[in-house]
Amino acid sequence: MGTLIVIIAIIGIITSMSGCVSSSMDDSELGSASGSESGSVSASSTSRASDELVVNVYSHTGEPETGFDPLLGWGCGHVNFEPLIQSTLFKTDDEGAIINDLATGYSASPDGKTWTVNVRDDVKFTDGEKLTAEDVAFTFNTAIGSNSELDMSNLENARAVNDTAVEFNLKEPQSSFIWRLRYVGIVPEHAYKKETYGASPIGSGPYKLVQWDKGQQAIFELNDNYYGQKPYFKKITMLFLDRDTAFAAAKSGNVDIAEIDITHANQSINGYDIISLPSSRAFGVSFPMQNNTGKKSLTGDTIGNNVTADIAIRKALNTGIDRKAILDGVIYGKGDVEYTGVDQRTFGNPEARIKDSKPEEAIKILEDAGWKDTDGDGIREKDGTKAEFKLYYSSSDQTRQALSVAVSEQAKKLGIKINLVGTNWDEIYANQYSSAVLYAYSSIDTFNLYQQYHTKEADDTYRNPGLYSNPVVDGYLETALRTSDQEQAIENWKLAAYDGNTGFGPSADATWLWLVTMDYLYAVDETVDMGTPEKNSGSDILGNIYEWTRTSATDTAQK
């Protein structure tokens, strides 16, 4: 431990990140690293056994301010990562499908309001006590009243039917409730105290926390009583470094895995592979969907934009923008083009996408709608209104700034002027109903799709920032959310994007200008074999830790 602390002291800059929230768009996780690499890093060479792993995975957690408590954010929400210490009822497989973990199966009542989950009977917590359905019920009932943002608002209560079955009673049917069961780690009723649990957690997962040096590192050791496939790595030391500092640590050979910033995509490190893993991080521009008629939000912010409310503007941008050029130019090809925000999800609808990079077609859309440059200043106008609007982005995030600049430059060629405003999130939220915003959608929970496109009041939350309202789409979203049939839910999520006539996607209402989905970038010691990472594993690189090995059978001396 002493050597690691010395290394951290030499490296210098440590950041921390609060517990996760259940949200569709994240204004902190995707921000740029707060630290910076300061020249060269000089650290003494370290050695460790081949079955010991040192990682710095900023997206996995950063450092949880409230400790390793799943009821206060550890392992849940938009980050959605393997909690290591606690077990979850369900997991996801390599293809992203939900599979059993503690659960042996589940069923939902015909009305979708009662879910029954059967639980294994061979699981013990690390203190030797048996895990039962009572612990599962306690975990979720406590989550209802916790101060976390797990969003258990639709859960009436959980009840242990017997030692191996728990019943979840919902206020309303909710097909997306499966994701709550997927991400909440189970805590022991007999040993849970909110004030102290996070610092000394007891769980039934593959690892147990043995040491937490706040602001520096956490050390996990293998849980010998783990019921599932036991990982090869018996010890994991998790460092809490920002991405740039982590890159410096990798260059010095002090970590096995380091999440690094996209700006390092084309660099190399001796003895490391630079890999990119897919994720759910879709970046796009939200458009105010209403005209400015003088209405205000609940807190007095202006609603409406007479330019972006015109579907011709939104359609033209979606058609004329060259997403592949943005992908290659801004994020070095480390990701994919994006059209609906959920292209990579099982509930994404390919029919909702369009063919882009067609400036001539985009110009025709504008001309046909009456947007013409009559005064020769390069900006189109219609009925005395210039094709001009503001685009807000987080000034702390260089990637979002670069994406915004790229969109602005391409829009200019279509005769649309986009004025960029880099600022803080308070100001962004205050202007989201009257101006475009560069947001990131970063969750695979289907409930967030409902929140993003279903009609809502102007309540100044970042969900549905354009105040999109379409009764047909609302119907699909409501059906998808309320059905107890997951296949029917997926079909309706897809129809909400495009049903052949209407939808939130660019083929129909073009509510957003989605741009790219950005991968997570990691420097990985070449001796580490990561097996087959899960689909969209970028934000949960440790999700398949059970498959990881080190190619050297002997102790590995770091470079």
From TrEMBL:
Tagged with keyword Transport: yes
Biased segments, Low complexity type: 30-47
Swiss-Prot/TrEMBL keywords: Signal, Transport
Entry-linked SUPFAM superfamilies: Periplasmic binding protein-like II (SSF53850)
Entry GO CC: ATP-binding cassette (ABC) transporter complex; periplasmic space
Pfam families in alphabetical order: SBP_bac_5 (PF00496)
Location of the Solute-binding protein family domain: 98-438
Highest taxon listed in the record's lineage: Archaea
PROSITE patterns: SBP_BACTERIAL_5
CDD domains (alphabetical): PBP2_NikA_DppA_OppA_like_19 (cd08518)
Any one GO biological process: peptide transport
Region described as Disordered: 26-47
GO function term, MF aspect, one: peptide transmembrane transporter activity
Family the entry assigns: Belongs to the bacterial solute-binding protein 5 family.
Protein name: Nickel ABC transporter substrate-binding protein
Annotated organism of origin: Methanosarcina mazei
